[in-house]
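Review session, final week

We close the course with one last complete record, chosen because it touches almost every idea we covered. It is Heterodisulfide reductase subunit A, a protein from Desulfosarcina widdelii with 778 residues. Go through it on your own first, then we will talk.
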Amino acid sequence: MDKKYGVYICEGCGIGESLDVKALCGVPEEGGMPVKTHPFLCGKEGLELLKKDIDDGTNSLVIAACSRRVNFDVFRFDGCIVDRVNLREGVVWSHPRSEFPALTDEEKEDEDKYDRVQMMAEDYIRMAMTRVGKIKLPEPYKLENLSRKILVIGGGITGMSAAIDAATAGFDVTIVEKSTALGGYAAKVRKQLPVSEPYDALITPVVAAKIAEVEAMPNITVRTETAVARIAGQPGEFTVTMKKPGEKIPFDVPYPLPEEMKLDEKGNELDAEKQHEAYLKYNEGRKDILSLDPEGELFGAVILAAGWRPDDLSEGDFSHLGYGEIPDVITNHQFEEIAKNGKIIRPSDGKAAKSVVFVQSPGKGDSDSDFAYAGAVTSMVALKQAKYVREDYDDGKAFIFYQHMRTPGLSELFYKGLQQDPGIFLTKGSVMEVAKNGNGLVVEAENTLLGEKIKVKADLVVLGAGMVPVTKDDPVVNLAYRQGPGFRDIGLFNGYVDSNFICFPYETQRTGIYAAGAIRRSMTMEESIEDASGAALKAIQCLESVNRGVSVHPRSGDMTFPDFFFQRCTQCKRCTEECPFGALDDDEKGTPKPNPTRCRRCGTCMGACPERIIGFADYNIDSIGSMVKSVSVPSEDDYTEPPFRILGLVCENDAYPALDMAGLNRYGYSADVRIIPIRCLGSMNVIWIKDALSQGMDGVFLLGCKHGDDYQCHFVKGSELADIRMKKIGDALASLALENERVAQFEVAIDDYDKVPKIINDFVESIEALGPNPFKGF
């Protein structure tokens, strides 16, 4: 597009009182851009001014007013490039010079500070002018063969609920179920937990009604005794190949053995047998998946609702509980099977089990822990199954020994109701031993609420085994992705699908594939039904976004996608390996193969590329680098004691909002700092730091999301990747003869707005202690 520029400076919200607006106008005038001011740009008259200029041909606007995080809809103009200069929160509110038109005598004595704030505002306008000159108007990426069908993997209560919700919204849905019938585990239970007032009675399972509803909907196709052999492609055009469980489909593996893996430790080529072993190891788990299959079926989005399996306690040492040795010591899953078939009986002789002990934690050696994969659901199941005993036998007794009794929300009413039942005994305690006692059992426990050891005679002992997500053992989705057939194991969720991030339930690291139900976390059937609705809505959102050619999440509506200048690609594979979302495949040479609708637009690939050949239309190495270079760096030629210049590359997801809130609360930080918001710290390319320091800036800091056990980063690994890159920047600083301390990385949460100013000021003080950058003035 031929650009026609316009710079617009708002004087409202204290901007006009705190800054010399006439001097600000001199910046665009000096740069050859027309400039206008207005008391309130976001008001009716201000918008009319903007729209009139747009009608007259202005299509590249710099709007110097409030933060881009507010009024984003007000200042959005179709067909125009718009950059926002944060004069309000980022300058005058966070660097208050005066809240009144007139300066006091005391303030006049501190005009140096005033000048620095003015310089800050002028720099930000200069940076925005540079940016609009460097970026392009994004164009949407649209698929030619968009599919609006949704695939649901799993025909249990979660999968059926998701399918019903999506089909009700008008989408065609296919349910794939590996067993012979729909229903999943829900079809194997006697009763469900109560879901409405007064929360005192178990209810008939809703699974039969769900099956009938699925079968009655014409836009739902059900395929039982079917599994997913492979999913290739990207959102909007997933190519899915089905198979019968256990069937082998001889796909070619798209990722052959890299050349370096054909050699031994001494660099000698491995023989054919060794190469084959290395090949199998390298492609482990991918032997049945491959690139596009022309016979596969096309889907637009996938809902993974594959469910869970009962934990296999035979793999642990529970001999003190008699499990595996005493037939009347069973798991809660086995107990449910018995209850489904009739009255509660002992497996050993089929006689009535009127006294049942429910053990919720292993006891010996791990007395404060529940069984693996246990939680609120296993607590609720124990209560439900205790009620079975009371329903089956008037003189039945149930004993529940627990370390943690979790009954969230209104389930607490069910728990309190059972506490009033004289036939149900609940106590915290460690079960130390289960032993034979004639034809029955005796259970010994200690550290109980009674403060003493107790022994209970029982007909049956039930162990509270946990719910293991099936994805712990089987990727289920079988993705033909460069990163492997399943979801990346980031070591946090122990087999659960990685959708457990703070801000993004349902969303996995594979765009267009959404997790629901017990593969996300242990859930009751009631919770799974609700969870299915969320996943169905996410899948629909994905399809609608892909149809419009925009990003799904978290940068919802973003039209950009990464562009590669392949002529300079060295096939280093860093972009494919570091992409958190598997958006890039590669060919046998390692050349990236983009899948634009998989992309979350984080820019991690851009930050990873040593050749700097990856960018977006409105966010690239050159646009940010040019903004860095446009910052005025005062030298001794201009000042006796030139002010410092410090660059802050700030993540737009948590850190930048925290800075805005600091400004809103009038928390100040050094006016020598220049902030550039970036999509994610993972998109940070070290060349920006080199550019800043080589032009004389005195220090650079990165401010981004926390990373670690909670993975708060919106793009999963951004802060972690930046941290790794920062550790390698020492060599670059050494080549410039600069101290490592001139560059630092800090992590903040979005609610750390009161801490951010001190973090920045402490860094500025450390830079001042080091002294000016020796490159200043060159």
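Two points worth writing down before the exam:
The chain has six domains: 1-137, 150-251+288-308+470-548, 252-287, 312-465, 563-615, 619-778.
The longest helix spans residues 111-134.
Good luck, everyone.
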